[in-house]
Design a protein that fits this description.
Number of helices of chain A: 16
Low-confidence stretches of chain A: 1-10
Strand order of the largest sheet of chain A: 5-15-14-13-12-11-7-6
Strand content of chain A: 15-25%
Helix content of chain A: 40-55%
CATH superfamily of the largest domain in chain A: Queuine tRNA-ribosyltransferase-like
Radius of gyration of chain A: 20 Å
Oligomer: homodimer
Largest sheet of chain A: 8 strands, parallel
Chain lengths: ~400, ~400
């Protein structure tokens, strides 16, 4: 930490009470490694954020989550509004106090969930009305209100309220969504007032590069402290997604954090880092962890398989997580076969640790200008193993 | 620890590689406090054993389980035979290595489960044939084989294979069960050969005191290193159970550990300690923990209730467990309402901690000859609150 203070240069991006420092840029790609400093410590980039939809990364107590190497997690505003409600969290003293996670937190704006989960959705230029997927209750979300809610939830990074169209979507609908996303981003920016929180803009535009170009241009003019690529990982092929990320990550301001929402598999992550992305979130490590699917340094391991019945080695011999230090494949397999909660718990811990070790390897490889070697290695292990 | 070594007296009961030392006896009751030393450390008595039916205390990783104050846990031979099977556990190096729990373990003999869970049960003088409750597979258990299986599982304390009749049962059936239990206990004793394990005898006889008398007499003649009262907590009233425990705990050898199987609520525990019981096991803290029922120093708290929505205090202000140090009633309630795994995890941790704190208070009160005060206090809180 002391070292970082000493080498802090004029290139650091500072806004409000937060700071982004790029420590090294890979000489052979757009990959860069750095650190974001928030009111709740710092997180190193490229960073992977485990998803804590409803105020908990499923099955992992905060202390064990810290041990996975996670420094920032994600919470879903949409879910938290529905249950327990923003009043409860605010009165608890904010999301950190409520959940017991004292590292950094990012909340999304709910835009994605409104468009993927909510029923009877009616969108207009001012916002969205929809029925809760829990009890059908009609809820109205508008950009100003969503920003105020996120101010009250108290995450370190909050997201502008955007319109996230499904995929595929025709040009006209995508254009409308981009126009609303830009209009709403302005409102969010005007309303946002806590200087210990960063508000990020979200670039939409589906796979239409001219729409994404417009969106980038307008949002950059608004001078957000960070930018996300949204509307991806919604059903399009990995190839099409990669083209968008390759083109648009570098178009986002170089001195600010760049966040690729909802991505992804190890290959997607290393490729996107090489394009210049700094932040990721994805449910895969925990969702797959609950289904007996282990991410390992030699590829996927489906622990329910008979072949692991007498396998007393760790899930991943190259992993030093709590699960791999203490338990065998045979034991975790047993837990899954009998339906014991401890199976999902241990495998979620391992999978999150796997992703954090990947991020660590990525950061190290960038420092050594060897990101391309790591990208190749990850492709060799995970190519043709995207389905999970 | 050093103190215990210094005051170790000729009164210590030593058998094989294990030892039971009584440190203090309450001057106003039969309650006593001491320590059992096993190959996996020591556990203080009176001891409460959380139940780890299938090789895990549900939802609690071993490190957090240690933090609850648990020093010995229970595993169910019947369940472990079915899944993953004794071969897997033996090849893993035994139950401790397989499960990652390095404290002491007791395995029951499966007698209780055979009679409560198994289908198509056929009992004869040599053993029991039954269909597995999992897949209908026909399994035969006989006392010699059950002992060998427990030798292979490798717990520190193992139990003789007994016939545990249901309640109510007529005198003739209860008598038959006692006769078989005695005959089988002899076989178990002959077969058992690992001197780092203690084999306990189990006293049956339902509520018929003359049958229990016979059973005690015969089993004591066999000189087991410890004795359990079995066949209780199977549906009889607390009052009837208490009468049996009050009469028969003192009839078991005073220098050896006495174990009351499957009990119970806080009142049952303190009352039984006063009768001279040293060991307990019960699923209540974890089962209730999965259902939103908290044990607290002021009685039960049903966390799903609306009244806790904005209650940001700990589940129990007198508790210093991981859950109470870090999380609020409002948060744990939220987790239960949205169905997040972390709810059962945290509340199981708290409830087990509550039971371990109760045991700690019991041990302390015995040292101070104040057990009767504690018994009264526990009755005041829990009387009329047996249902859960």
């Amino acid at each position: 930490m002391a070292v970082w203070c000493c080498i802090a240069s004029a290139a650091n991006y500072v806004s409000g009470k937060m700071e982004f420092e790029i420590l090294h840029t890979d000489s052979n790609s757009n990959g860069r490694t750095g650190v974001v400093r928030t009111a709740h410590g710092e997180f190193r980039t490229p960073a992977f954020m485990p998803v804590g939809t409803r105020g908990t990364v499923k099955g992992i107590v905060p202390d064990l989550l810290k041990q996975t190497g996670s420094e920032i997690i994600l919470g879903n505003t949409y879910h938290l509004i529905l249950r327990p409600g923003v009043d409860v969290i605010e009165q608890a003293g904010g999301l950190h106090k409520f959940t017991g996670w004292d590292g950094s937190i990012l909340t999304d704006s709910g835009g994605f969930q409104v468009f993927s989960l909510a029923q009877l959705r009616k969108i207009d230029d001012e916002g969205v009305s929809f029925s809760s997927h829990i009890d059908g209750q009609v809820i109205r979300l508008e950009p100003a209100e969503v920003t105020r809610i996120q101010n009250r939830l108290g995450a370190d990074i909050i997201m502008a309220f955007d319109e996230c169209p499904p995929w595929p979507v025709d040009f006209e609908k995508a254009k409308e969504a981009v126009e609303r996303t830009i209009r709403w981003a302005k409102i969010c920016k005007e309303v946002h007032e806590r200087d210990e929180q960063w508000l990020f803009g979200i670039v939409q535009g589906s796979l239409f590069t001219e729409l994404r170009d417009i969106c980038v241009q307008e949002l950059v003019a608004l001078d957000f402290p960070g930018y996300a690529l949204g509307g991806l990982s919604v059903g399009e092929s990995a190839e099409l997604r990669k083209k968008i990320v390759d083109e648009f990550a570098p178009k986002l301001p170089a001195d600010k954090p760049r966040y690729l929402m909802g991505v992804g598999m190890p290959i997607d992550i290393v490729d996107s880092v090489a394009s210049g992305i700094d932040m990721f979130d994805c449910v895969l490590p925990t969702r797959n962890g609950r289904n007996g699917y282990a991410f390992t340094s030699s590829g996927p391991v489906k622990l329910r398989n008979e072949q692991y019945k007498f396998d007393f080695g760790p899930i991943d011999a190259n992993c030093s997580c709590y699960c791999c230090r203490k338990f065998s494949r045979a034991y975790v397999r047993h837990l899954f076969l009998v339906g014991e909660m401890l199976g999902p718990i241990l495998l979620s811990i391992h999978n999150v640790s796997f992703f954090q070790k990947l991020m660590n390897d990525i950061r190290q490889s960038i420092k050594e200008n060897k990101l391309s070697e790591l990208v190749e290695k990850v492709h060799n292990v995970w190519e043709d193993r995207r389905d999970c």
